[in-house]
Amino acid sequence: MDVKKDILWRVYLCFLCMVLLCVFVLGRAIYIQTVQGKYWIGMSDSLHIKSQPIIAERGTIYSEDGNMLSTSVPVFDIYVDFAADGLREKQGKRFKDHVDSLSFCLSKLFADKSAEDYKKQLQQAYEEKDRYFILKKKMTFDQYLLLRDFPLVRLGRNKSGFIIDTKDKRINPYILLANRTIGLSRQNLAKNVGLELTYDSLLRGTTGQRLMRYSAGAYMPVEGSELDPVNGKDIVTTLDTYIQDVTENALMKMLVGNNSVHGTAIVMETATGKIKAIANLGKQPNGTYIEDFNYGIGKTTEPGSVFKLATLMSLLEDKYVDLNTIVDCEGGSKSFFGLRIKDSHMGTHETTVKEAFAASSNVAFAKLAFQYYQSQPQKFYDHLHKMRLDTYTGVDIVASSGFPLIKKVKRWGATTIPYMAHGYEELVTPLHMLTLYNAVANNGKLMRPYLVSEIKDYGVSIKKIAPQVLDPQVCSPETVAMLKEAMLEVVESAHGTARAIKDSTYRIAGKTGTAVTALDNKGYNKGAKIYQASFIGYFPADAPKYTMAVVIQNSIESKLVYGAAVSGVVFKEISDKLYARYLTTATYNTTLVRDTVLNNAMGLKNDMRSILGYMAIPFFDSSQNGNWRNIKLAQNTATLNNSIVGYSTNNTIPDVSGMGLKDAVYVLENKGLKIALQGKGKVISQSIIAGTNFNKGQKIILFLN
User: Fold this and answer.
1) What is the pLDDT of residues 460-474, one digit of tens each?
2) In the predicted model, is pLDDT for residue 438 greater than 80?
3) What pLDDT does 312 receive?
4) Reported pTM
5) What is the DSSP track for 419-468?
6) Kind of pairing between the strands at 289-290 and 275-283
7) How far, in Å, CA of 59 to CA of 463, rounded?
8) What pLDDT, on a 0 to 100 scale, did the predictor assign at position 695?
9) Cis omega (within 30 of 0) for bond into 540
10) Phi, psi at residue 326, to the nearest 5°?
11) Cα–Cα distance, 267 to 434 (Å, whole number)
């Protein structure tokens, strides 16, 4: 009996221990679940859930005349969650019922695989329960619109498992036009340039967020967890697309024809300081020219004879000379402390200051500056400081702006003043000199040059940027009058260096410059000389509307080197076209023909219906299929149809006549075409006939009106 009791006691003890252990485990589980539950759930989420930013739609950059210079178009990454409950319920009946038709539609849409290949791929991913299957990346907007109506996809995310991730692609519809000034928008902000960088904080908007849960080796969005982004603001530049196009073409023609290295041309509105156009072209190793650097704003050089305006302004303001003061040019050659300064045209002796300016005598201005400022150099420096030639211009591309170099007086040598007087031993940008010339054209009022005139949010103006006066009177009215007379002499007199660009219809005033530049850091006089050609002036001289600077760096192979023959010709081509378009008062007898394009338009179906509904215009839609509509408006009634050429196939040119620019860009860019534009407004015709075949990357020209 003692043995039996001993065995039973041990069994009871083990049983009691097991009961106590179970009670402890159960109690601990209840404690963790009720008391520590939130802590451990949060710990699990921190390991399996992460926050992903949702990038806001970047704002659009517009020209002042309403054209898009830089905008964003959406591209779509498509994923499928093959473990979605709605897709797998009833043993996957929904997937199995739709996989054949879905595969057929995908094959037809993307034309990269057969329907059978798509079916095998989808079935394999379904069997593997792939939670984040990549179906297609960078899908176009048109493809996305079609995909939404495909079998299975149209049932919604919960039942189909389809996940659509939208991203933005930045494009410049006008491609080369002011490309460096508008800038590039990259993910790495440090590599951005131009207005895209300067106004990035406004353009990029506010980033949203969404939760991503890690499952089966991939992160998937948690539905309903999104914090919507706030889209970026739009900015309206001071640029005019017509003036920019004229400027770019005139500069390109000269650079190509003269085999120049690089060049810039800037057009400024005289009264306001608005930059209406800025072209910057540099030669590439393959011989082509692109906007590779902002030479007008970012590159400082020795300006050459265009700097003589600053010297003459100083001399006139101090009343040391007037335009009729006689100066001896000593035959066109004079030495200063062993360094010889020469004129390009030798033989001149006594001449007036006005004639010396018109003929661009280096000796005359070197002698006058040396005579009056050598003993009081600070006085000359103070004039240059008042002209703001030693500081930033204030233009709103700060990161790209070149800082000028006007040496402090204590660093001046014996020959500094005579060399500075005719454009050497200082470094300034073309925009610095243009701002000074513009002040003379503007009767002494020095304006801040600027590129952005307005900020908009969803089309509503939230800030207008007004012209800013840097100095209401950079010099006296008497000095301004004499400077204007001297600049007219450059163009209109028989001995003026720019007499070749004189025009009988309107008057031009300005100054040429031809500066010798160093070759490959070998110095100025080692081997062949390289010249920088400049012309800065304004027109019409009697009532200035535009001030313009053209600065071109020539090469050894350049046949033309002088300012008038190179930059003056570019100036004249631009000024002729601007005068004819904006300033002439000539009238022509023409018979006006009604523009029937105004009664036709094309765009997205929903957009058209919204607009017509808002305007209370009755309409009839002849078809319920497709996303694009052609609209014809007659007698206050609209008819919509989708019989549009080239939309149903991937390899034919679509008809975009009647579309707005943004819709046309969507359609053609998404088909892989490169776009060039002429004019502004709606598309009235295209260079490739709709319905014809094309190759990826082919160029198409859209004509707007």
Assistant:
1) 899 999 999 999 999
2) yes
3) 97
4) 0.72
5) HHHTT-S-BB-HHHHHHHHHHHHTTT-EEPPBSEEEEEETTEEEEE----
6) antiparallel
7) 15
8) 77
9) yes
10) -85, 135
11) 9
Q: Which fold has domain 52-237?
A: Penicillin-binding protein 2a (Domain 2) (3.90.1310)
Percent of the chain topping pLDDT 90: 42
326-332 contacts, C-beta under 8 A, 24 or more apart: 326/350, 326/351, 326/352, 327/351, 327/352, 327/353, 327/356, 327/361, 327/364, 327/367, 327/368, 328/367, 329/356, 329/361, 329/363, 329/364, 329/367, 330/363, 330/367, 332/361, 332/363
Q: Which of 221, 462, 511 is nearest to 357 (CA)?
A: 511
CB neighbour burial string for 605-616, b if at least 16 within 10 angstroms, e if fewer: beebbeebeeee
The tokens describing 525, both together, are 């006089």
Mean pLDDT for the stretch of residues 28-32: 75
Whether the Cβ atoms of residue 686 and residue 700 lie closer than 8 Å to each other: yes
Q: Mind listing the pLDDT tens digit for each residue in 687-699? A: 777 777 777 777 8
Residue type, 525: N
528 alpha carbon, distance to own chain's centre: 37
Does domain 241-583 sit in CATH 3.40.50.970? no
| For range 340-359, the mean pLDDT | 91
Mean pLDDT, the chain, as a whole number?
84
Structure token digits, residue 92? 């996957």
Angle between helices 308-317 and 377-386 (to 10 degrees): 110
Cα 18 to Cα 12, 15, 24, 160: the distances in Å are 10, 5, 10, 50
DSSP string, 40-81: HHHHHHHHHEEEEEEPPPPPPEE-TTS-EEEEEEEEEEEEE-
Phi, psi values for residue 384, rounded to 5°: -65, -35
Domain locations in the chain as residue ranges: 52-237, 241-583, 596-704
Q: How many CA atoms lie within 13 Å of 167's alpha carbon, on the beta-carbon side?
A: 12
